[in-house]
Amino acid sequence: MNQHEALHEHIGLEPPHLSRTSTLLHTPQASRHLVYIMLLQPNLTLPSVRGRIPFAKSNLDEYSPSEFEAFDVLRPRGPPDEETQAASLSVLSVDMRVTENKEDHNTHKYVSSNLIVRRNKEFTIIIQFNRDFNEQQDNVELEFMIGSSPDENRGTYIILPIGKEKPEVRWKSRVVETQGNYVTVGVTPDASCIIGRFLIFVVVVNDLGKRRTTRNTETDVYVLFNPWDPADEVYIPSKTDRQEYVMNDVGTIYIGEFNYFTPRSWNFGQFEQEVLDACIFVLDSGKVPLVYRGGALEIVRQASALMNANDDYGVLVGNWSDDYSEGTAPTAWTGSPEILLKYANEGGEPVRFAQCWVFAGVLNTFMRCLGIPTRVITNFNSAHDNMGKLNTDIVLDEMGRLDRSRTKDSVWNFHCWNEVYMKRPDLPEKFSGWQVIDSTPQETSDGLSRCGPTSVSAIKEGELSYPFDARFVYSEVNSDVIYHRSDKQGKTKVIYVDTAYAGKLILTKKTGSSDHEDITSTYKYPEKTVKEREAWQNAERSGMPTRDYLPQPEAGVTIELQTDTVNMGDDFKLTLNINNQTNQTCTINATITGCVAFYTGVTSATFKIENQAATVEASKTESLTVDVNAKEYTPYLKEKGNLLFVVYGHIEETDMSLTTMKVVTLQPPKLTLTMTGTPQVGKVLMISVDFQNPFNFILQNVQLRLDGPGLIPIKIKSYSQILPGGSVKYKMSMIPRTPGKKVLMASLDCPLLRQVTSQLEIEIFEAE
Amino acid sequence: MNQHEALHEHIGLEPPHLSRTSTLLHTPQASRHLVYIMLLQPNLTLPSVRGRIPFAKSNLDEYSPSEFEAFDVLRPRGPPDEETQAASLSVLSVDMRVTENKEDHNTHKYVSSNLIVRRNKEFTIIIQFNRDFNEQQDNVELEFMIGSSPDENRGTYIILPIGKEKPEVRWKSRVVETQGNYVTVGVTPDASCIIGRFLIFVVVVNDLGKRRTTRNTETDVYVLFNPWDPADEVYIPSKTDRQEYVMNDVGTIYIGEFNYFTPRSWNFGQFEQEVLDACIFVLDSGKVPLVYRGGALEIVRQASALMNANDDYGVLVGNWSDDYSEGTAPTAWTGSPEILLKYANEGGEPVRFAQCWVFAGVLNTFMRCLGIPTRVITNFNSAHDNMGKLNTDIVLDEMGRLDRSRTKDSVWNFHCWNEVYMKRPDLPEKFSGWQVIDSTPQETSDGLSRCGPTSVSAIKEGELSYPFDARFVYSEVNSDVIYHRSDKQGKTKVIYVDTAYAGKLILTKKTGSSDHEDITSTYKYPEKTVKEREAWQNAERSGMPTRDYLPQPEAGVTIELQTDTVNMGDDFKLTLNINNQTNQTCTINATITGCVAFYTGVTSATFKIENQAATVEASKTESLTVDVNAKEYTPYLKEKGNLLFVVYGHIEETDMSLTTMKVVTLQPPKLTLTMTGTPQVGKVLMISVDFQNPFNFILQNVQLRLDGPGLIPIKIKSYSQILPGGSVKYKMSMIPRTPGKKVLMASLDCPLLRQVTSQLEIEIFEAE
Question: How far is B106 from chain A (nearest CA, A)?
Fold first, then answer.
């Protein structure tokens, strides 16, 4: 529809092509309508005539209000003449007091020249007029607008009269001080207002109409969540918690296996230049309606979907194949800003590639950047990919060897997700607090690639009826591992159930420390306690499948696998301890299957099958030793730095079966970071990165990444090959600009070797 | 990876390009591995080596098992020689007893030559062997497979030994009768098994291996939900209910406005040829994992997303514009089979176009076809498009006229959704029963285009913490309409709140009758009762916004708009009744705004603004009359057959404001269906469709659709134009083939005239 038609449509006239058959144009009503539109809507674009109302879903799209809106139809339309203008009040400048306000609002760390504030806390701006401001007579308004169709009823258009109370308004304003033609105005966005970038206009109202200040991007203000304020949904009481979960821009993500886990530093970088804009771009790109952007629940749930590219062109493409040649290997990244900025700069093209810790790292940045307290969690032995079932099925063949082709479930060595701290206004109060969200596309959460928020305390109690995805998370930490064995004709039978394997250890970084914190007890009661049984009963009442395979008969004999830490490329010994708690001697025939495995527990090759037997006297423990030679497993390793061992034991005397499983995460060779010089602001500091190839094969297409938030911008070096025994040394100098604790992190990555990372904490002293 | 590499990968040997540096090939372990794979996995395709396990998400993709699987490694691999084969048992034929089983399983109405059964009910098949079957000695199995990677632990591969108990198996089998070489086997799929199309194989097992029957599509069996069985999640106790909500293939959808609603017949056609396959195709196209297809909750939630093309290339494209030239207008369809078959035949290309009743009609077909009891619901005055808010905001200007550009909410005259009847194993028991699902893309339900299932009883009680989308549905039926009025400077103020407007009337078709049933009381307690207030309080505790604009001061005066039914193109009178309940005379100045509106409440043009005044004595009622001329509104009508009137009343004496709003749905001209002849099986019946254009404009590009399930296949006739006063007569003859009650339905549709439909019930008698 062209504008001419639109005008007719709006004022109730017939479109031109019909008007010849009608007389409506000349009725008194029609001319009154004409007045009406001039009076009220002098410059607004007309709404679409479609039968559905369009909704603003972009913060970056802007509305451009006219600089002058006339009121009075009796006077000529258009801007008033020169004389009238001279007599009237006008705005010379607006000072956003960026530095002072940001210090007050805990937003000083954001690298941005714009004002960034938090909800429900006052910020002050100074307006300079052309003459003294008279609070009694002058009629001035502050306007805040977000998105392309600002609307008072939707919280996307806020009008605050300066010096006058406005009824029914959520944002507050007051005149703090008037000094001649300078007026200091205090503005408090309400505790549940939309977060994002708002445009500000100062409007002088007189009898003729409204005159706005010119659009000026420098006065744009970002409003964020406020974890400091008890009225905000994301309030978190402890100062230490806020410092860690909102303000800390470097963190640790735990990976590896539960008894030898590895800390991996991650640059969250939520305050880095343009990261906040990139986060808003993510919401825009995900078409999250502006009216939803005031609610933590909505933001958090949407964000868990938007971090992955499944369904919705989100930030990251998940990839668990061996082949990352079309992008960056998940193991190579050192932090989030590189990823978020790439996504935004390439107009929303999903970034390649991620695995769970990358998804969790970027989601953490996103949340902290918007002001929602968040942490990265690692669940060791995470039950996964077992769609719609509570249990994980491991199938052994007739001989007790792992049957890889029939074992279609896997337990991930570790899986990372996030917890956000927030109120759950939709749920009974006890479910507020930490909530699980997970953006790794698992294909299984409510049919879509997102998960949560789900209350951690609800998981612990087994109260799984409440949204979102509680049953899925519950099963990740509580799944039973069921071992089946097939007979000669391929028919399977349950031989053993391990109820303690999944959710073995749940970690996060400790607040104010570089150590870890064990939070397993926030997710589950200890095994075999009354409370644990009650939680299971609650879970079954909430629709979890009944564990009809329990209880299993007790063999009275237990088996357990042990190793020390194993360096990649080393020979090692695996010990199988057999503990006979019965009062009879027992003879055990054990079959040990060794496979190379992804961190997802998916096996890629069987490299060892060994049979051993032991006779264990009553109430005694015996050990069997399995020798594992590097040359057995190295040919299949590639990036899969894990070995999975499954033991099947058959007790001759009782014809009973025992099973156990263990992952050995091979420790990759060291990447060494060394610093020389005095770590002081303004002084030169030398950094050296050293790596030696300990293998007897060539490492090709090696990428070295160096990242030091607050020290250096990210640096990527490529090496076409590192020969066997060969080494790489990279040196760089830097001059720190700000004092405080910094972390330098490095990763070395190539198709045959992954997860080689290192970090160095550096305390930079003040300049002398 | 090629097959040679795959083999090496699987058995733990090095891939060829590495083997020169290793001696592993010659170790005793290695040769034992070689035995292992031949023994156990003679013909299975090896799983992918990717780090994530792939999941079958298609029923139509098939797995092709080999016809022979060898067991014994000591004997030569491959099929046994001729002599051995001759001595052994083999299968000559399998009789699915389609007619008898379908009669027993209430699936006889499906037009399909395949067997269709319901869960947890036995069906019997007859296997013919080459010689007498010996239950003690012969080892025969029945295999059921679904999807491309059948797996016993996932319920996608069921192995049933014939004549032997199998432990831990969910499906049951038994030998019903043995007569020489004919064996009748009874099979009972378990009550929660996956629904869809299963392949059947009969397997003869002997010492050498397994021999399967050849793949035969004629023995494929479809397993459906079973509303007849108390063990099934979708059990519905009443026979009348099952007859209506599962077996009835024609229904009525109510449209229009609440005080003059119109029944519109709809051909659900769930039993029509290929419709069941199309429904399975929809699940495949939506990539619903097979393992989820046994749960009503999952099927139902996915289906609500899959009916619309938003997010996921679902069945129908929603369109609320005036322009349907790229497809079929939503108003033109007469039923679901045409749509579902078009979708399936075009490989999953979304069908254009739909509005709410079309989405609801097709979703109803989908559910009934799979065996889930379902009905179509119409909510009159459905609050919509009011994202994230409980209320609907109507903005009036300074003069009390509707301000269309600032009114961004709308109340739909009616909105259709579905209810499914099912258990909610995930929720407390009281929330089982009817559940709301809605597939009209509203862009607002949990960020995606789907809605539900949400328990109707939870909506009634205001218990909105439980999944899915309860708050959204609650607000559709309970939203408050808030009237705002702006002052000269554009600042708005709440002037009136109508708490009774939304969810005025909720209807569905009555069981076993062509009449409607009012089910409003299943969604809400009566206005202003204690129970209603309690439900509101529950709702606020579940996160609904507080209604801080209540209570509003009472004016003591009420206003109400009334009309009779209005035919499209007629002049009519609108009566404004003013009831003064105070003990003082009051003077009311009323402003009436008349707009043309979509059924979604979105207005497209203001055609009338009228001011009137009345003086009403204490305790009296006065009426004002507004004359509405056809020539005022017809120029803007097009397909928008509704007029929206908003009244603003100002009481001079008390300075209080009153507001009311009313939709007048214009009744379109009649489409007449007449039958001549005797409605008897085998006899000729004449049908005539008549329509006359009552308008003074030409109707162009007219489409006439005639649909008569069980009588005629769908028929579409086009007319390039119908002149003013001109008429169209279409005659056809048919010969009914089956007796019983049939419905013939017709729609006439063109860009200037929509929603012209008609239906004729015909009772076909048995042949003499």
Answer: 29
Residue of B387, B390, B480, B494 best to disrupt the A interface, most CBs of A under 10 A: B387
Q: Map residue B659 onto helix, strand or coil.
A: strand
**Coil, strand or helix at B226:** coil
Assess whether A8 carries a catalytic annotation. no
Q: B566: which strand partners? A: B666
pLDDT value at residue A168? 60
Which residue from B minimizes the CA distance to A16? B635
Both tokens assigned to A735: 């001059």
C-alpha dihedral sign at A734, A248, A366, A360 = positive
**Of A697 and B97, more confident:** B97
Instruction: Select the residue of B53, B301, B395 nearest A602 (Cβ to Cβ).
Output: B53
Q: Identify all chain B residues contacting A444, using CB atoms and an 8 Å cutoff.
A: 289
Active site residues of B: 356, 415, 438
Q: Are B477 and B521 in contact (CB under 8 A)?
A: no
* CB–CB contact A406 B151 (8 Å): yes
Disruptive mutation site among A40, A48, A71 for chain B (greatest number of B CBs within 10 Å): A40
Kindly report the average pLDDT of chain A as a whole number.
87
Q: How far apart are CA B147 and CA B198, in angstroms?
A: 8
The 3-state DSSP class for residue A719 equals: strand
Among the listed residues A138, A220, A284, A356, the single catalytic one is A356
DSSP-based three-state secondary structure for A90: coil
Range of weakest confidence among A37-51, A527-541, A565-579: A37-51
- HEC string for A206-267: ECCEEEECCCCHHHCEEEECCCCCCCCCCCCCCHHHHHHHHHCCEEEEEEEECCEEEEEEEE
| Nearest CA-CA distance, residue B52 and chain A, Å | 6
Note which residues in 271-310 of chain A have CB less than 8 A from chain B. Answer: 288-289, 291-292, 295, 297-298, 301-302, 305
Number of helices (H), then strands (E), in chain A: 14, 39
Residues B388, A292: C-beta atoms closer than 8 Å? yes
Could you read off the pLDDT of A719-756 as tens digits, one per residue? 999 999 999 999 999 999 999 999 999 999 999 999 99
Contact B465 A292 (CB under 8 A): no
The torsion angles phi and psi of B145, rounded to 5 degrees, stand at: -130, 140
Average pLDDT over residues B2-19: 31
Pairwise CA distance, residues B169 & B158, whole Å:
8
Residue A415 makes CB contacts below 8 A (sequence gap 6+) with A356, A378, A379, A382, A384, A440, A476
Single pTM value for the model: 0.85
Which among B205, B311, B489 has CB closest to A311? B311
Which residues 303-362 in chain B show a CB within 8 A of chain A? 305, 311-312, 320-322
Nearest CA in chain B to A441: B52
- Nearest 5°: phi and psi at A41? -125, 55
pLDDT tens-digit readout, B556-578: 999 999 999 999 989 999 999 99
Chain A residues 623-642 with a CB less than 8 Å from chain B: 631-632, 635-636, 640
Distance CA B535, CA B464 (A): 10
Rg (CA), chain B: 32
**CB neighbours of A605 closer than 8 A, spacing ≥ 6?**
A595, A596, A636, B9, B10, B12, B49
The complex's ipTM? 0.79
A387–B contact, CB cutoff 8 A:
yes
**H-run or E-run covering B672:** strand B671-676
What domains are there in chain A, each with its CATH number?
3-40 (no CATH), 68-224 (2.60.40.10), 239-541 (3.90.260.10), 557-665 (2.60.40.10), 671-764 (2.60.40.10)
